[in-house]
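Problem statement: downstream parser choked on a complex file, so we are re-checking the raw output for the iron/sulfur cluster run. The parser issue turned out to be on our end (a line-ending mismatch), but while we're here, posting the original submission so the record is complete.
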Amino acid sequence: MTRHETPEIPNPDMVPAPSTKGCRNAPILKQRGQHEVFCGLTGIIWLHRKMQDAFFLVVGSRTCAHLLQSAAGVMIFAEPRFGTAILEEGDLAGLKNAQDELERVVQDLLARRTDIRQLFLVGSCPSEVIKLDLARAAERLSAQYAPKVRVLNYSGSGIETTFTEGEDACLAAMVPVLPDTDARQLLMVGALPDVVEDQALDLLAKLGIENVSVLPARTLDSGISVGPNTVFALTQPFLGGTHAALERRGARHIPAPFPFGEEGTTAWLLAVAQEFGVDQAHFDAVTDAPRARARRAIAKAGETLSSKSIFFFPDSQMEIPLARFLTRECGMQAIEVSAPFIHKGIVGPDMDLLDEGPTIAEGQDVDLQLDRCRNARPDLTVCGLGLANPLEAEGLATKWAIELVFSPVHFYEQAGDLAGLFSRPLRRREMLRLEAAE
Ligand code: SF4
């Protein structure tokens, strides 16, 4: 395995231009074999915090209930906004009418929880295996409980999915029922922590971009709509289904690098600003100060990261934009950047900026990929929870990909924290090494 030269860190005062040696057209290693991923139910953990009047009812097994309960760490006295309608053996064997059972559960839930305005019926592996028609159930229940409650369905199953597809499926399910509009507007798409979303909206307002909505909205009554004069910018790279659903409604995507780090955030904002005719002087006036803050914050963590090598296993679908950030802004060397899916219409602008050199891989054959990782001995490996412990035991420093979705990492004010997420495991390993040497 050869490592490519340390990429030149771009002059931060320049608006990034596509690298002449970007990897958009680099060969992609495509592998299909055993893969190690979490299921799409995981998205409920951050979506239920974001959508304040929603409830996520998983139609699944006790395993699904345990996954959610342990991953969300909900205290038992809290009233969570998710739950599981557990399919019992009788349902699975077709002995009972699962549709009737589900309707009864929904009736009880809505009678008890009058705060619920949006109910998502979330499919799982067991509900898909018995071919329970949740779309039909959602349609019937929506008609029954409208206008107070909107009932939608999507799949969070772990059959051939990766964990971020849950959010994508949820957002895509909302698009067809959004009201029509002819208004010229920007839709910012992706579930961000409220504080990060507010920062982004503040920047857009300062740029003079009016009429901005966010999908997912915090509540059902937020007035979000879509139509042929809507343009949308994604804040997460795993929203391929939502992207397609919005285009079907006539909206147009603004392709841009993702707002990770100073450079990515500037490029993302610039793409939106250009769409709305914001002049460069005004753009600079708004972004100069936060850009400088972001650069200072990144430089601090960058001292640990500079010249270190990194290997990405496919998990969150954020791998390509993160590799772009870590190589160009933190001086890391990417050995392999693999993602579960590579949608060039979405991550193409990040691929333009990511220098050629690392292996770009799509999909996974986990044993072969582990061999490549062991041979390369990267300084840092980004992977799922299932691979992290074994790799740590083999002396490799790891970063859990799922943390990148749970942590506030977007836009200028989080750029230093994003770099810090990658520098911490390296510093911890160095401290352990020094302690062992004493
Ligand atoms: S949806 Fe499938 S993979 Fe996810 S917890 Fe349930 S059974 Fe497991």
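For whoever reads this later: The domain at 28-37+291-437 is CATH 3.40.50.1980 (Rossmann fold).
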